[in-house]
Amino acid sequence: MTAVNSKPTSLTLTDATWVRATLVGITVLTVGLFLVLPLATVLLEAFAKGWATYFDSLMQPDALAAMRLTLLVAAITVPLTTVFGVSAAWAIARFDFRGKNILLTFIDLPFSVSPVIAGLIYVLIFGAQGWLGPWLAQHDIKVIFAVPGIVLATLFVTFPFVARELIPLMQEIGHEEEEAALSLGASGWQTFFKVTLPNVKWGLLYGVLLCNARAMGEFGAVSVVSGHIRGLTNTLPLHIEVSYNEYDFVGAFASASLLAGLAVLTLLLKTFLEWKLKQDVKASRQAAIE
Amino acid sequence: MGINLHNISKQFGQFIALDAINLAIPEGELVALLGPSGCGKTTLLRIIAGLEHADQGEVFLKGENVTHQSIKNRQIGFVFQHYALFRHMTVFDNIAFGLRVKPKKLRPTPAQLREKVHSLLQLVQLDWLHDRFPDQLSGGQRQRIALARALAVEPSVLLLDEPFGALDASVRKDLRLWLRHLHHELNVTSIFVTHDQEEAMEVASQIVVLNHGKIEQKGTPSEIYDHPQTDFVSRFIGQTNVFSLQDNESNWLDATGITFEGAKGIVAHVRPHHIMVEKRDDAAHTDIFLKDWQHLGATIRLELNRQLPNGKASTIYAEMPSEKFRELALTKGDRVALHITHAHWFN
Question: By the CB < 8 Å criterion, does A53 face chain B?
Answer without folding.
Answer: no
